[in-house]
Amino acid sequence: MLRKPSHKTAAVLAAVAGLTVALAATVRAADDATGNPMQAQIDHGKSTYASKCSHCHGPNLMNSGTITPDLRAIPDDKTRFVTTVKNGKNNKMPPWGDILNDEEIGSLWAFISSRRKP
């Protein structure tokens, strides 16, 4: 014979169900319209790049006539990229470690990597 759940048990189950729905909605919100979480990270990196990096590195990852490198041709080395962004380089690129958090730098890497020349 099945017993009817107590009000306390029902309330706990309802709360768990509500949290599960909220968590699923949060995960979907982090994805882009196609449901691709990597694309959402690339899009975030593109936005960060436009506001923080493009004035020196150019709107298309290159700025001819300057000392900045063509970012489409940077090595496939995330550790080196993160270190350079955080600490700056050769007293020419300023450090961004106090301005950009790890998530923003990771998104920048995702964006720039997605545009790398083969």
UniProtKB/TrEMBL annotation:
Q: Which Pfam families does the UniProt record give?
A: Cytochrome_CBB3 (PF13442)
Q: Which PROSITE patterns match?
A: CYTC
Recorded GO MF terms: electron transfer activity; heme binding; metal ion binding
**Keyword Ion transport tagged:** no
Keyword Signal listed: yes
Signal peptide extent = 1-24
Classification via SUPFAM superfamilies: Cytochrome c
Where's the Cytochrome c domain? 40-116
Q: Which UniProt keywords apply?
A: Heme, Iron, Metal-binding, Signal
State the InterPro entries in the record.
Cyt_c-like_dom, Cyt_c-like_dom_sf, Cytochrome_c_Oxidase_Subunit
Q: Which domain of life is it from?
A: Bacteria
Question: What is the protein name stated in its UniProt record?
Answer: Cytochrome c, mono-and diheme variants
Please name the source species: Bradyrhizobium shewense
